[in-house]
Amino acid sequence: MGLVVRCESEECIAKYQACEEDKESNEHEEHKTQEENKNGNEESKTQKKLPARSLLGLSKPKALEDILQCTGNRPWLGPKGREKGACPYPPRFLERLASNLYFPKIASSILIPPFSDPIRRIIDDSHNWCFLTSGLTEGGEPDDIRLRHFAELNRLDLNRLRKVVRQKLRGEGLSTTHEPVERYRHSEYRALLEAQTRPDEEFVTRHPNMTDYEADTRSFFDKIVLVEKLAETRVLIGFSRINSPLSPDFERDNLCPLSRKPQQWLPGVRVYGEGIFLKLNERAVQEWFQNIDQRYNSIRQNLKHTYDKLNRTPRPLSPRFFLLHTLAHVLIRRLTYECGYGTASLRERLYCSEDSKHPMSGLLIYTAAGDSKGTMGGLVEQGKPGRLEPLLMRALEDSLWCSADPLCVESHGQGIDSLNLAACHACCLLPETCCEEGNRLLDRVALVGRPENRRLGYFSRIINQIL
């Protein structure tokens, strides 16, 4: 039998009331939680009943315009890389491994005199240059005692050292302003044709006697230069997305920057190799212009349309460029069978300009690979008299026929942005690393003509002999 003791003190009554209030509060919270869970389950059931939205058209430029807004974030520039102000462009949908997600913009240059002189590399060192220029005379000339001491210490020729130091003091070959790519390449073009080089330099050329080549070869080429040694510097100046860079110039418009603030340096690499330089016969080019100039009007319109989408002015485009570019491609394709280099190990460098102040009409095929393939040798041998003629003949024979003909030779526009005419993967295109233009602006009709009109080809005389 239990015994119940009742206490009616004020302290006990207050504790009893507090316990009852806590009990009621807990019951209310449990009821509220049950109601929220019930509503959440009903909402999730309702969402599951909604029809699935199709992803068709998601990759279109304005597909996400009403859904997402660009935040201006640029993660490759670090935590402070966000753009200032609102971004006016809508986000674009791209797959993570899409090929148009990243297009690097590479600028390259050939090391030419006076920069190819090994003495120049020595005096470019900041400590050496400080020593040589710390005692300049009143006329700005280097101190002869310091030059003599430096030449003896480093076993250098005193006269060459004095000449190179004076060149650097005068700033020869340097420019403090932005130069167009045509003017910049014209310096390389002149060096390939005229420079007197030494065997110990990083730019060594040899000029064979043109009379040693066959008459047909001399009628198409004014100059053939064998580049026994060259050094190419390649730097990354930016990158783009969705649209690849249109030309191998140094402009940074429509490019994503590599740093938040402009820097005095760029990531780059220097590679070494050899090459063959060909300069076209200007008289033969002018005669050929009369037959083919109107053929490229449609390509000019397509190029203008491509540039208009990027709000840029299209560059001038002449038939000479199609001739040089396509000739470089067919020679590279043939050289892979003749000299042992892989196709991806060879590169083209085009020198084309109609500017009266800086005329250019040549091409350089060279190897400047970073691995052992770039030093195998054999490319220069193919440019010597007796070897270049059969090489050119076989390359033109390969261009006469394509497995995609007649569709290829009769094309009015194919490839990227319809910027190729008679050129496809079966006859002219190369790996992306070989071509400066991304396999655009090609036409083998410029070389061999059409079956019904061989006069459209620059090498029509050789083609008639082959046929």
Task: Report on this structure.
With 467 residues, the protein is an alpha+beta fold. It has two domains: 116-170; 181-466, no CATH class. The protein is 35% helix and 13% strand. Strands 1, 2, 3, 4, 5 and 6 form a six-stranded antiparallel beta sheet that branches. Helix 10 packs across helix 11 (388-400). The model is unreliable at 1-7 and 43-50 (pLDDT under 50).
Describe the secondary structure blueprint for this structure.
Layout: H1 10-48, E1 103-110, H2 118-123, H3 126-133, H4 144-154, H5 158-170, H6 181-194, E2 204-206, H7 215-220, E3 221-240, E4 268-280, H8 282-292, H9 297-309, H10 319-338, E5 346-353, E6 360-367, H11 388-400, H12 445-448, H13 460-466
Antiparallel strand pairs: 1-3, 2-3, 3-4, 4-6, 5-6
Name its key features:
DrmB; 467 residues; alpha+beta; 2 domains; 6-stranded antiparallel β-sheet; 13 helices; 6 strands; MZB
Helix content class = 25-40%
Rg from C-alpha positions?
A: 35 Å
What is the number of E strands?
6
Quaternary arrangement of the chains shown?
A: single chain
Shape: flat
User: What class, by secondary structure content?
Assistant: alpha+beta
* Beta-strand percent range: 5-15%
- Extract low-pLDDT stretches: 1-7, 43-50
Q: Total number of helical segments? A: 13
Main beta-sheet annotation? 6 strands, antiparallel
What's the domain count?
A: 2
Instruction: State the distance separating the first and last CA atoms.
Output: 128 Å
Mean pLDDT, all residues: 82
SSE series: HEHHHHHEHEEHHHEEHHH
